[in-house]
Design a protein that fits this description.
The structure holds 2 protein chains of 2 kinds.
Chain A lengths: L1 H34 L18 E4 L2 E4 L7 E3 L1 E3 L15 E2 L4 H17 L4 E2 L5 E2 L9 E2 L2 E5 L3 E3 L2 E4 L5 E5 L3 E3 L4 E4 L8 E5 L3 E3 L4 E6 L6 E3 L4 E7 L4 E4 L5 E3 L73 H29 L1
Parallel strand pairs in A: 1-4, 1-19, 2-20, 3-21, 4-5, 6-9, 7-10, 8-11, 9-12, 10-13, 11-14, 12-15, 13-16, 15-17, 16-18, 17-19, 18-20, 19-21
Chain B lengths: L1 H11 L19 E6 L4 E8 L16 E4 L9 E7 L3 E2 L2 E2 L13 E6 L4 E13 L5 H4 L6 E13 L4 E12 L2
Parallel strand pairs in B: 2-3, 4-9
Antiparallel strand pairs in B: 1-2, 1-7, 3-4, 5-6, 7-8, 8-10, 9-10
The chains are: A alpha/beta, B mainly beta.
């Protein structure tokens, strides 16, 4: 009896040990999956061909410019025109060439993007990219997939050079005031969103990248700033509200250094109140001289809008000697004023 | 003597406190023509300037005027619009941005543009640079938002270079 009891205890101990070992191993595996860096395959940026110059590529483009105008810096393609043309620089506007080949290029790019394997697949049906446990709102280059919808709730950061592909089985939405931002090295040229559902960028969103839905519409609401492209050939792009700006990144120019080159010697361009490059009239587009096609200045492959030239600080200081004499007079006058009643009192006493 | 001093103070005293202008509308971004900063009693004409032969941003002709850098964005446009103004005294008059360093975060700056529209900005940050420091971040931004940056001098006067040692920069953001 006693032997059996001892033996049972031994067996139980072994069982417990096995369970503990298994639990420890499981814990290690789970922990490893959280703490180890994601080992991502290299996602690649597809060629956009003739679609690359378009800020909006659609079948129907809806735009009213009410109460404030929308600006599209890039070509605008459609077969059904908007009620009011957007502002901005468009080399191609409407359905003339290269509209049709742009549509073909868009389809090829989408096939390429959706053919790249997922580096990370979200589990939840609908995912807010700014609130995932695994990424803490910062993403490295790679292909991120979800069977359901994707959204940007607050801010996400795309960190580092490389291609980012966000593929959702449902809609793509950004919450009002949300931000997609790039860390150094990342480029708007290399960010792609391929939802299989409608895209809605809500008001005051700051968004980056090229959106190519499988076969759905794109809506961009009030005061959204978007460096990228709305490519949905044959479908509807809508900018129904106010002050939307979409700027197609120019991805063909060489990288421009973030730090400026040594000062450029230029002839004096000021004087007489005349402005150089200030442009005439009102309007909403900044007008600069000698600047890239978007009208906002050269755009680097990082998708940044750079000034055409960066001057040194102005010399706004006035020589302090210029005021010395007057300072002296002021002080002397104040002294005299204050001393008069003292003198009077003294004279009275005497 | 006393009456002369009184006249002196009347003529050369600083402007009375300027009330904040009524915001008419924030449509459109024309060329700026006037700047108002109520908390430091600035109400000044804005000239339009480019660069000097030394590739420095140029300065206003009048010490009581400010100047907008016309090779950059207009105030209200995306990017960093830049306005500078003199610091110091000349002929008994104080320069437009003598008190720029007294601005505080949250103070308002109003730009009136050529069509009469007033655009308001809120001070976000004050920063001091040396006069030879790289000014890239003052003249450029890449966040697709509208900024207004004000520049003036500060620090110690250098007789040889005829320049102050520092530049005071006020960074402000357009109110939505």
């Amino acid at each position: 009896m006693r032997k059996n009891t001892i033996k049972n205890k031994q067996i139980n101990n072994m069982k417990n040990t096995n369970i503990n070992l298994n639990l420890a191993l499981l814990t290690l595996l789970i922990g490893f999956s959280f703490i180890s860096p994601n080992i991502l395959h290299a996602a690649t940026t597809p060629s956009l061909g003739d679609a690359s110059s378009y800020g909006v590529l659609s079948g129907t483009y809806v735009n009213t410019n009410v109460p404030l105008p929308t600006t599209i810096n890039g070509d605008v393609g459609f077969t059904t025109a908007p009620a009011v043309s957007p502002l901005g620089a468009h080399t191609n506007y409407g359905f003339a060439a290269p509209y049709a080949t742009a549509g073909t290029a868009q389809a090829a790019a989408l096939a390429n993007l959706n053919g790249q394997g997922c580096d990370f697949t979200f589990v939840a049906p609908a995912v807010d990219l700014s609130a995932t446990v695994e990424h803490s709102s910062t993403y490295s280059p790679g292909v991120y997939c979800n069977t359901g919808a994707l959204s940007v709730g607050t801010t996400i950061t795309l960190n580092g050079a490389g291609t980012y592909i966000f593929r959702s089985g449902g809609a793509l939405n950004t919450v009002t005031g949300s931000i997609v931002t790039l860390s150094p090295g990342a480029s708007a040229c290399d960010v792609f969103w391929t939802p299989n559902g409608a895209t809605t960028l809500n008001a005051n969103s700051t968004f980056i990248g090229t959106v190519i839905p499988v076969a759905q519409d794109i809506t961009v609401l009030d005061a959204t700033s978007w460096i990228g492209r709305a490519l949905t050939f044959g479908h509807v792009v809508t900018t129904p509200d106010a002050n939307v700006i979409i700027t197609a990144p120019n991805c063909s120019i060489p990288v421009i250094p973030v730090t400026p080159t040594p000062p450029i010697t230029v002839a004096s361009v000021s004087g007489g109140g005349a402005s150089m490059g200030g442009g005439g009239g009102g309007g909403f587009m900044p007008v600069y001289t000698g600047i890239g096609p978007t009208g906002y200045g050269a755009i680097s492959t990082q998708g940044q809008v750079l000034g055409a030239m960066t001057p040194s600080f102005p010399n706004t200081g006035l020589a302090p000697d210029g005021g010395t004499m007057w300072h002296t007079l002021v002080l002397a006058g104040a002294f005299l004023l204050l001393s008069i009643p003292v003198v009077v009192v003294l004279l009275g006493v005497l | 003597m006393l009456s002369s001093l009184v006249v002196f103070f009347i003529v050369y005293a600083k402007d009375p406190v300027v009330k904040a202008p009524e915001i008419l509308n924030n449509l459109g971004y024309g060329i700026p023509i006037r700047i108002r900063i109520p908390t430091i009693s600035v109400d000044a004409v804005v000239e339009s300037v480019g660069t000097t032969t030394k590739n420095e941003m140029d300065v206003p002709k009048e010490i009581i005027h400010a100047a907008w850098f016309n090779l950059g964005p207009r105030p209200g446009d995306f990017g960093s619009a830049v306005i500078d103004g003199h610091f110091g005294w000349k002929e008994g008059r104080s320069a437009v941005f003598d008190n720029l360093n007294k601005l505080k975060i949250g103070d308002k700056i109003y730009i009136e543009e050529e069509d009469g529209v007033i655009i308001s900005f809120t001070v976000r940050e004050l920063k001091t640079y040396s006069d030879k420091e790289n000014a890239y971040n003052v003249f450029n931004s890449s966040d697709n938002k509208a900024h207004l940056n004000l520049i003036t001098c500060g620090g110690v006067w250098n007789k040889a270079s005829k320049s102050y040692s520092n530049r005071i920069v006020v960074f402000a953001d357009k109110e939505i």
